[in-house]
């Protein structure tokens, strides 16, 4: 990890400490103590570190999740993804996130418990949307219509369920989680094929509105 420069902003302090937080949060929770320990590990003034995370646990978790976004993007650059089909891109992007969080499963459990609290629901939803939106952007999605939203909702469900599978996975190589992800992606692909087929058939179906319009306004 590169050192911070002499006069960092609070945003820079948060980004610098974020990857270190889960190792301490696993034992001390998402707490000021975890911030202090991460600051000591990174050689950052603990008072500045605590100021950077003055809003508490959710701010710490948000910073960690942002660091996962960055690491995922670094792990799968554009030139790597370009050589893959869309299904492979999405699968590997989800898997990259899983591989990043896997060593910190206890911290992840604690984070999810905090985000599940009613007062944190909207913040948790924004974090989830940010993650799936980035995955689709990295995968090359250019949709601007309703599909833009349905793709992200669907991927959000896939990612969330895969994270839960990870938390219960006792295999050394996470093979159970990988198999679960592959099954979920296959289910999504089947649904997308069904939607495409349905749309194609609908284009050739008689239109009830056009038929009624002809009854009211017959061609002369």
Automatic annotation (TrEMBL):
Per the record, the GO terms for biological process are:
ubiquinone biosynthetic process
The reply on keyword Transit peptide is: yes
Q: Which key words tag this protein in UniProt?
A: Lipid-binding, Transit peptide, Ubiquinone, Ubiquinone biosynthesis
UniProt superkingdom: Bacteria
**Its family?**
Belongs to the COQ9 family.
**Residues covered by the COQ9 C-terminal domain:** 122-192
Q: In which pathway does it act?
A: Cofactor biosynthesis; ubiquinone biosynthesis
Q: What does this protein do?
A: Membrane-associated protein that warps the membrane surface to access and bind aromatic isoprenes with high specificity, including ubiquinone (CoQ) isoprene intermediates and presents them directly to COQ7, therefore facilitating the COQ7-mediated hydroxylase step. Participates in the biosynthesis of coenzyme Q, also named ubiquinone, an essential lipid-soluble electron transporter for aerobic cellular respiration.
Descriptive protein name: Putative ubiquinone biosynthesis protein
GO molecular function terms listed in the Swiss-Prot or TrEMBL record:
lipid binding
- Presence of the UniProt keyword Transit peptide in the record: yes
